[in-house]
Amino acid sequence: MSESLFTQLLDLACGAFLLAAVVVLWRRELAAIVRLFALQGLALAAIALLLGLHEDRWDLIVVAAGIGALRAGLLPYLIRRALATLVTDRAQGQDQAAYTHSEEVRETQPLVNVAASLLTAAALTLLAYAVARPLVELDPTPATRALPVGLAVVLIGFFVLVTRRRALAQVVGFLLLDNGITATAFLAASGVPLIVELGVSFDVLLAVLVLQLLTVRVREAFGTTDIDDLRELHD
Amino acid sequence: MNTVGYTAIVLQVGAVVAGAPLLTGLMRQTRARLEGRAGAGVLQPWRDVRKLLRKEPITPVGTGPAFRWAPPLLVATSLVLAVLVPLISTDTPVRGRADLIVVVSLLALGTLALALAGLDTGTAFGGMGASREMAIAALVEPTILMAVFALSIPAGSTNLPVIVAGAADQPARLTSPAGLLAIAALAVAVLAESGRLPVDNPATHLELTMVHEAMTLEYAGPDLALVEFGAQLRLTVLLGLLASLFAPWGIATGASLAAVLLALLLAVLKVAVLGMALAAAEVFWAKLRLFRVPELLAGSFLLALLAVTASYFLGGEGGQ
Amino acid sequence: MSLIPAALATATGLGVAGAAAGLVLPQRVRGAVVGVLTAGVGVAGGASGVAALGGSRWSAEVPGLLPLAGTHFAVDALSGLFMAVAGAVVAAVAVYGVGYVAGHGAHGLGSRGAQAVLPLFALSLLLVPAAASVSTFLLLWELMALTSLLLVLAEHRARPAVREAAVWYAVMTHLGLVLLLAGFMVYAAQAGGETFAALRSGSGAMSPAVRGLVFVLTAVAFSSKAGLVPLHAWLPRAHPEAPSAVSALMSAAMVNLGVYGLVRVGFDLLGGGPAWWWLLAMAMGGLSAVYGILQAAMASDLKRLLAYSTSENMGLVVLGVGAAGLFDHAGNKALAGLALAAALLHVVNHSAFKALLFCAAGSVLRATGERNLDLLGGLRARMPLTTGLFALGALGAVALPPGNGFISEWLLLQSMIHGLAVPGVTTAIVLPVAVAVIALSSGLAAAVFVKALGVGFFARPRAEGAAAARESPLLMLAGMGLLAALCAALALVPGLLGDGLDRAVEAVGYPGTRPVSGGGLQVRLDEVSAVLSPLWVVATLTVALGAVTATVRWAGRRRQRRTRARLWDCGGGAPTPRMAYTATSFAEPLQRVFDDVLAPEQDVDVTPVRESAYLVERVKFRNRVPDRIEHRLYRPVLDFLAAAGQSARRLAGGSVHAYLGYGFFGLVTLLVVLVVGW
Question: A172 to chain B nearest CA, in Å?
Fold first, then answer.
């Protein structure tokens, strides 16, 4: 693979990676958000794959395949199933079916409105670029030059975590954060050792399973997944 | 002074003028077919224009010069754009003057004229349309200028022929993240600027939703023909601009008549394909609520900003 | 060479003569004589400015005029630019003022006091840029502040709101003066001299901290004069309440001097500085641009709208000035010169169209007695010339071709866009944001002036005042005509400024980039050129317009006259003016979009019928968009001051002995401190 083609493809993958995070802020339907997350997983896998091919490291390619399977396949599947549970439960309940249906599967009222979220994302991206600048200048390769993208996704994921009300949207926010960290690791140092990556992946999987369970329980207890209602536990 | 350059301009303006209603007809026909209707035929907008032009001109009581002169001004700005935008050749006598910021501003001038005309009628609908249109236009402006900024970085200039010729030379510019983000941002801005779904529905006359149509409700006869024609011209020029910026292949860069003719053919094809794609997409889209439009534009603005930063930080070409 | 002193002396003589004439002449001829003399001041001052722009320089010392320091004057091209602008505005507005005063009789601007002060205000506007020492500068600056304050107060008998506005203006302008005084004192003490020449040569040896302190103090003071957020609070109060001719002078000539001060001190005297100075300036400029135009978009008061638009335009100018400083810091002198040229050109353009707009607003106010856009409308049939002139000014203000504002904003955008060539993270982050700010403010400006023109002048009158409006007298139209001609000239042939703009930029040490040479505007940097030829755009638009109308006429085969028809009324009778969109309703979508920023206050009072809570008798809706920065920033300070004042009242018991005792005690304490301390 030629150097310029590699740069081009890597930039493209990074662009898609960042774009997916941004569009998560844009969309309200949880189903669409999960789809975007899957897309981002693919982009992340592509980044790892490109780096692996470029540096001729087989372990990276294996990690890429693993990431693809986990983040574009399994995790979205799990979240989607949780979503489906919420919807079908509600449908069986038959109380104000249509109305709460739309309430549960949409992020109707984020704490910060969508337009402001998007502008914040713009500011966060600029911040990420500014912060990463000295790091990039240490060793300006195509991979490190894309480092701010990973950082920006970390920040955006955190922002989603802070401002979204639905528990599942928060799960996605958490996963965005994790994707960002993984991407940063790949871009900065061509990935962490295989065993660490495996450990992290299992961690994430476990976290999602727990969160999924928790979400369903929360909804059973409170009748909604709006986590602002958890405030009641305080008293 | 090159004759080929002048020929290119004449051909381009002729094609835009003749083709604008045809493009609208094509889009309506595509939409009709996709929705299972027979459709009125591609030529219908031309028939409408001809019919309207022959009707008697009517001035509503209580309107003034702004109402009277807005339609010709709208068409005139679109015509100037048709001269400036390099659709088929980058080597025309006006190439030095085809500045992207000027192009954007001329578009805004047409919008502004129509908004003033809407207010001039003193009816609730006219004011409503003007108010909404200006609110949208105010937000489109930063978006579109940021996209301009992103596009101008690799070329180092806001001059349109320079940007287009540069992109035709180095196709890699277009597939870079910056290029792709800029395409997306500009495409959204173009939808808003030309009043298409999901920002405005050109086929609606429902007071809750209409924007452009509300401003022009009082027009009839030849004035209405001009308003409709002006809107069609704008759409054509904007789609052409999009095509030139992001699919510049085949645009003539030298002074060869054959290349210009080929470019003309290709440009017509590109715009037709873009129009049909837009029409097909509109079948599946719903209009956004008016107060969701800022979200769309904020998104587009973000894309453009990302394009700017990406081209500065990722690319080695323009930045660094 | 000798033109500048001669012209300045003439201006001074005419100004003093005007003041005397205002004091002694009877009311019948007062307005005309003072107007002519003031116009003379403008012409003479403008001539000296033009001469300076043409390349001549002049400096002089008049030792006897002031005790201790003497007075120093120096005119270079930068001063010349501001003097030429002020002179042109003063001359045109003076002509306008003669007509304006004629109708009012001896009240307001026509009163003895106001007429005596007006020529002095005009004179001070022209002389401030010529000052070349701290004491001279501050003296003229204070003369300008005081005379303008008196003129703002001119109509205080007619409206109580004038007094409140004047108090705000007096307090803020003097706070500015205090800051300026402090800044210059530190500077002069460190530089070891108070002439500008001494300051210039002394700045190199100063420590960065002192330089920074001087810059911040003076920049804050100058930004308050330029009406930048957050020190803009006086502007939307004083400009609407002042007589319109005075508003025009203040908005088109006085606020410029804030920019002049910033450029003079920041670039010329201090010789540039670190990046954070200029980032501070850009932040204030950007904030003002967006916040000012947003408030203008919400305003229903025509003159308040124009005042906020001034805040916006000065913000854009300072954004350009800040960018110039940033480029200079990065070592790119050519770009710095370009950005500064763009900013200065915008000063010129803004003065031309804003003076015209304020004058036209004054004509409307005079003809209708109304500034509220909600109650205007229908003026285009009653005051066609004024409407046309306002439209011309508005075209300049919306920054679209073929208006004059477009040219300078285009240049500003070009300098920002090409500024990315300057390496560094700061520029890479600041410049895109700056471009977005310029674009957003120009987009909103379009909405603002469509509102002002469309709601205020078009459609049908919504109140009796507007229905009874009559066209303004000839002299007012003539004054506005001069300004309109200026706008048109700047819009079509910016090359008229010739090398003047370059010389002004060179005066502070940057190479001129010759952006306005000939009819086209050029940006030439490292083989990049961008060309804008306004004349060509106008010519093509005209040709296209002609072609369109000719085609329409030809296509409608039977030559038909235009028939008149009723507006579409849904079959329910002709629509009444009450159905038309008002300024408030026009601004509603934007208010909703920027809800989080503006935080409008809305009350709904529902009064039910006595018998049933479900039947509504009356619904009262109130919507107010307060100036939020003012609320958040000034209210606490004012409350604190009021509380402090209340507690201080205990000291004032009313006993004369106590008061004398305070003075005595103070004197003794001071002496004790002196004895002990020294």
Answer: 20
